[in-house]
Amino acid sequence: MVIRRLAPILAIVALVLAACTNGGNGESQAAGSEGASGDCTVAVSWNNFQQPRWAAKDQPNIKETVEAGGGTYIEADANLDTVQQLTDIESLIGQGADVLILLAQDTAGVGPALEAAANAGVPVIAYDRLIESEEILYITFDNVGVGRAEAEAMFEAVPEGNYVLIKGDPGDPNASTFLPLGWDEAGLQDKIDSGEITIVADQFTDAWDTQTAQNNMEAIIDSANADDIQIDAVLAENDSTALGVVAALQAKGYDPIPVSGQDGDTANLQNVAKGLQYVDVWKDANELGKAAGAAALQLCENPDLASVTIPDGLVNPDVAPTAGLSVADFTTPGPDGEPDSGDENVVNSFILQPQPITAENLDLILDSGWLTKDVLCEGVEADSAPPACQ
Amino acid sequence: MADALTNAPAPAQGAARGPRRLGAALSATEVDLRLFGMLVALVGILIGFHIMSGGKLIQPANMITLAVQASGTAIMATGMVLIIVSRNIDLSVGSIVGVVAMSYALLMTDWLPALGLGLDAPFQWLIALAIGLGIGATIGGFQGFLIAYVGIPAFIVTLGGLLSLRGVVWLMSSGAAVSGLQSEFRKIGGGVLGSIGETATWIVAGVACVAIVALIVYNRRQRQRFGFPVRPMWAEVILGAIGCAVVIGLAAFANSNYLPAGLATQYAAEHGITEPPGGLKVPLGFPWPVLLVIGVTLVMTFLATRRRFGRYVYAYGGNPDAADLAGINTRWTIMKTFVLMGVLCAVAAAIASARLNGATLDVGQSDELYVIAAAVVGGTSFAGGVGTIPGAILGAFVMQSLAYGLSFNGVNSPTQNVVAGIVLIVAVGLDTYNRRRGGGK
Amino acid sequence: MAGASSATEGPTPLVEMRNIQVSFGGVRAVDDVSVEVYPGEVLGLVGGNGAGKSTLIRTLSGAHPADSGEILVDGKPQVIDNPRDAKDLNIECIYQQLALADNVDAPANVFLGREMTTSWGTLDDGAMENETRKVMGRLNPNFTRFKQPVVSLSGGQRQAVAIARAVHFNARIMIMDEPTAALGPAETAQVHHLIQQLKSEGLGIFLISHDIHDVFDLSDRISVMYHGRLVGTVRKADVTPDDVLAMIILGKKPDEATREELADLRA
Question: Do C97 and B385 lie within an 8 Å CB cutoff?
Fold first, then answer.
């Protein structure tokens, strides 16, 4: 009987605990820290903390850089929900954010949040994902460059043949615009036009979900088999989809064919070592985090977006922007996604360089400490081991 | 219609003259017309996509792919039927799959090796599997306890489970995907390496055929024991023949799915067979996930219809007070439905992680929606008390055939979702309409 | 075996309920009520809405155990904490709402909670159907729809199923809560006939009804409740329907009510 009365209370407690465990990954303000630069609160609004990369690489580096510079780090996770992100940002501003690092869930839908930040005098750094607004500092990897690197590597391995294109979430400008642009810059459209490459299938993958990619790829393989078409290569936009693609190929008994990816996820780099994935375009997110952290600290002192610089020596020179350590102009595609259509924005930016990783240069991964050799080379057979694993 | 489903006395003259109308014949066989209708719908969908693809969809390899892709949802849907029938819901199934899949992956690659049981240790995967099933049962039991004994509504408890367990997956893996499972375990995921082969498939078919005949004979004897009316002999024979034909047909179909050329050559070399021109055709047979679906279906149908547990679940769903007043331990019954669901999630998780050769953070994400949809499309009603296991299996296959058919024909995933949603509404709408008209089962 | 109309008052009642108390929150639904039933007798239990009749009877059927008080069966004190305890004592109850599971068939309902199983532990549906046919044959020989969910049966047929359940399990004490409320005249007559039959077999029956004429037709003694208390227990032979009505409405025995109150009643 008593338990029955407690039931509603228990329910509420369970709900609250659940919300705390999942959303927000609950880091509220760290205990007060004063440093030489005074109290600089840097707030980060994640869009999907669940994806492996952010928690493993970006977040620790942003946090470390900010705290080393005497700042305070706070964050919130929108869990793929645009409206939730707006709430998150309002609450972060309410908690006293001086600078906002924003990973937009929806580049168009984040408008109200930008207004709120502008009203509160909080400068905004667009982190990794573009926001179509003149009032941001865009710190990212060269996403078009990533696409270009993916395709260039793949064309070296398979210059002609039947390709499958596996793209990411249709709502993500990276998936729909930037990466395909990079592919074309590397020559994809030209090769299609000249008949060197035939596109067997071209599909998006909701939420970049691995299982969805696996199911779609299996259906594509079945369809190709029904037409007696051999698939020669798969241009997958990122690692989570590439993982599903590789699983599908194995299930169907395909001998390993070149597959691309990006992000440098552990499981995928292991696949590169085993010869199951051909190229993984690695964006050393550690460096991106450091750059963003340093930029945020500077913006606390001086909110002028155009005057931010990356401190010398902070970022690996192979990764640092080709344009140098001061901000460079970047022309966005504009809200319509079409370059040169007249609605583009010109923003201040730091565009870092990606590094394509194949079996040949896996040592870069080991050297930077991204992965240890034990982990990278797990399950690799001695007679087919890449150089880095020998 | 309702009357047609009762124990109509065997029409003595009918047996002599043979069936006159299809309706009379069907009612004499006492086949569940609703299930039959769903089967027709499934075939219709497949034929539709077959035509759309220019006649390429319905082939052994593709149908096997479809079956394997549907297996996880189908297995979980059987458990969801019992939960919805007893007026509850379980929103956490996708997250349970996520936790257990990650557990399998971490057990095999990390935790068990740390205890000295590496990937080459025999039966390491069995231990991982057993632990995973235990984890599923425990989570289910915990939720079941909160629902049945503490009295918190199932919606709330399982919603909390959905949220918090997804976070647990993240904590377990520190945000990374884990891969590299034991090769025996990977067979659970089907694929070219996960099928039982030609001989075993024929054996399974043979055993199934014998079992079907034995079941028909047993049921007939049971009825005769009390002098109840029995089906006319011709109906029994035809049912048995159809049953056997279907099973053997499925086996033949599965055995027309062959090893890919490269692997066939390897196989020939390993077994010292010279390859004939055109390559050696090595039949693959039933994949393991399909056998698991069949096994789970049989066990769950048995539990639901032949055991007191199943009777109590349905009675409770029909009238919870009546069940209590009849002296049934309703709380224990409800708790068991959730434990069962947890175990079934663990089985589905095994298939998912075996297919992926690992686990990612989002394994099982949103599964609950498709599992519930499968149960509902298969005839389970949210009012409680109504729903069948075979219906849920068919429902899962209907949903998956849509996704696969669209994918096969190159239709994009947003469109796939739109179609799935529409079909769900249409299927349930038709069912509601029929129920109102028929006024019976 | 006693005749239909006079109860055999042996020294030991079949069932005796002493000083039963049931409270919900601060409200005394049943306040120190004592009643008993002898073998082969029908005790009519009457009272207005909220009088506590159903609550009292549910303490006997195990649906809602009493807060305090004693229940004796054959003179021996027994503890009835749940419906199973009651059934173990051969107390069967036919609830006002019948307590049938609508989505399963008649045999399943008759044997609900007490299913017959085969030697392998599976449900022996054939045997249960067989037994149900036998029982229903006595109650409603024209009934044939044994395989249909009971939701599709008529009110009288559902009633018959509920009675079949009570009758099959060798009840010695039967509780019937408004058994004819939803029935037509023919079916009511059937239920009356059944009750006479059960009486003649020596069962003790609690009959709750708001229909005074039914009560008078069937009962040997009548207990009246009013706002949770027992107004009194009378022998049918000693009172008229009007007397009983007065007890129900005024909550007092006829000889305690004032002339004005009785006059108001008749007005």
Answer: no
